[in-house]
Amino acid sequence: MGKGEGRFIGRTASFEVYPSVLAPAVPGAVEPERKLGPSEMRFNYGPSTGGLMESVNFSIDSPGELITGIEVNPYYKTRKLRISGQKPEDALLIMERINGFHSASNSISYILAVEDALGITVPEPVSMRRIIQIELERIRSNLTVMERLCSAAGFGVPHNMLAALREKVSRIIGNATGHRYMFGTGKIGGTDLSFSGIAHKLEPLIDEFREINESLLQSKIFINRLQGNGKVTDKGLIGPAARSAGLRFDARSDSQSLPYERLNFQPIVRNEADAFGRFMVRAEEIFSSMGLIERAEELSEGSERIEVVSPEIADGTGAARVESPQGDLFVFTEIGNFVIRHIELMSPGKSNLEAFRHGSVGTIFTDFPFNWESFGIWISEVGVEIE
Amino acid sequence: MTSNLWFLKGIKKGVLTEKFPAEPPEEPPLRPSVMEGAEYSECPVEAIDAEGKWIAGRCIFCRRCEPHFMPTGNQDLSEVRNFSPDAIRKSFYIYPLDSGSCGACNMELLSIFNPQYDANRLRIFMTNSPRHADALLVMGVRTEGMENVLREALDAMPGPKVIIAMGACAISGGIIGTMPLDKEKVALEIAGCPPSPYTIISAIMKLRGD
User: What pLDDT is recorded for position A282?
Assistant: First the structure.
């Protein structure tokens, strides 16, 4: 615990998270409720209706077409998860379901925090295989965001092409890990997974994606829906939203939890700060993730199962931060006698919801789906209470 | 590929849709699938009962029971109850409701419309309103905030109100919590964590008596 230095990443119940230090949490300022202006109306969209992937409610202020104010309530589907009092390996089954679509990022950040607490250092090939898991997840997640942007634009053909690619990636993940969402694959202190030959299987898919992406970038109709839409430049941004706004923020380059420096990782940074910028960062990160997978596979030492390293201590506190497809994902855990005593989580969804909200004001209704989908927000990780 | 004639680009891709269900699944995932085995008593979600019988609707496929129980690849993980297929004769419109899911079920439901599966060709569609729905498909555990929403969606549906519970959370609460539905009112249970697109499609077809 110390004084906050560097970029402010986010806040848990007890901490403010900075790249190399945790500071005591200071409650954020509460914005006063917006009052409706002359001729404005307020109406609800959600929590359960067509067009929404998950249950979430939007309360939108508008005089007719312009969005003048918006509140987002992600807490309708809040799940209460009991982690404290569980053995670390039992709690893992819950942690990987905080966000099922980003299960690898959630489970690996938790595993790394537990290993930090118990003084476990895993061999490099284990870390490389974990990086492959997270980068596979990023490729699929970014494809999904782009697929849904095409769907919002009514671009049926590229939408279906990207959906087909997503399915192919899911099958590659399923064949390599035994589960399409990597549930049940995490191991504290080691790994059972092997990714031998994974880059070779991905190559044709990445080529296919390149063709689709190049064609999308020639479509003025598509690009016009994204450019200037949902512009946000706040310093509080994380993940692709930050990198699209010229901010070089990426846990892969400023967190020591996973050895990305061994892979010569460089963040993708652009300057548009709008839905188009977020789209472009995601597209370019698909190629970047492919490169990381190729290099990590070389360092992951074949297909052998890597034995679990046993902890030498039974008590301790640990923390870890990884770059999930949405941005920084931080886990703090306190373990006593091999039992989780306390856990705190900072999911990227919360920061991205704020960014979405700020970026929505001044846009019009037809901009809404593009702005929303460009953030790739998962409500499951926001609407969750961990005890 | 530089021009923007999407139609031609789509045609050039050829037919990606598989022959399933007329033919077996081309690439069925190992997990989830029907588990077979014996003698394991430490299941974290009690998906193996005292007699050693495996219960699909409880299983989260965590692999703790392996190798005592092993996945078979069989995608038939559904059970139809208290429902006559005569009630549904034509296209089948589903209203999905996320009661408290992790998102994986949501993605697999969406995946049944991917080109590889193309559920529309099997007369399976999604609708944006419960008023136009033949079935309410519920994913996730019971959550306080979604209780009223679930009730209102059920009230808004026309009869017969077909209720589908999809995934371990909706069927039994899984590892996360408690189930959001009255089990007696559920016509179709689609087990899995999450169920694969093959399982979802075959389950709906089983419900319709196809």
Answer: 98
